[in-house]
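User: Hey, my collaborator sent me this sequence without any context and asked if I could get a structure. I don't really work with proteins. Can you help?
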Amino acid sequence: MRFRGFMDLPKGFRIIIKGNGASVAQVSAPDISIEAATRDAEDLRRGADAALDSGTILSRTSHADEQRAFSRNFKKTFPIASRGEGCWIISSDGRRFLDASGQAAVVSIGHGVTEIGRVMAEQSSQIAFANTSQFHTAPAEKLAARLLAVAPANFRNSGRVYFTSGGSEATETVIKLARQFHMESGQKDRYRVLSRRQSYHGSTLGAMSVSGNVARRAPYEPLIVEWGHIAPCFCYHCPFEKIFPQCQLTYPTQGCVDGMRGDHILLAPPSRFRRGECALIARALQLAVAKVFPS
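Assistant: No problem. I've predicted the 3D structure and written it out in structure-token form, which is a compact way to encode the shape of the chain:
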């Protein structure tokens, strides 16, 4: 659901709410009028609406010529984030921005947590990098054990955790894992991945192939694969005009399903989704988690 509006904050702060679900953008500088901020928001919508994933901070600065990093939106100049305190981001010129979305929903505990920084410093002082093709590390094993402890029962004793650097890589990896599973099972003809229309599973080419967002896919159609997309599991509005259980299952190789997301309504699949001899990919990109297992 898309929405826009204004909300007043204490101490003269003003935020603009815009986006899919709960995207929040703040304008904290008192010299920026609501009219100017609205124009910025409309430019952002027209120029880069397909690139909005979560919150986007709207601001103006006079240092456009000094910025050399590739911009996500060339119609605006980004403030330089210098440091963070809890739910606040402080720019290099001292302005404070309310981080109401945890950036890409990955800073839920806030910025500037000293315990996290201390542990990271301690670990980096011991070893900088260990290639997983040759080594395991104690912190990774410890985290894997904690994840398996809260996993479904059939994972706890024989399950394994594969760590990646982000959600797009997790999607790419799990597609390959599912393919390898079918190869080892003697089912070499199984390679298609079915996912929902308007779904989002990442920004790399493989992840975009299984994503169903039309606007994000359109510029890259010659490069990405079309394996097939299905409507969300909402029997009340069946796109095939069927009545359950008239819609019979076929035999896809994999199914990529969304977990709880922050940018659209949650439609939980019925229990029948678990039947059929295909690998199920359950993923939550904002948590950078992906799993693959036979149903």
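In plain terms: The longest strand covers residues 2-8. You can pass these tokens on to your collaborator as they are.
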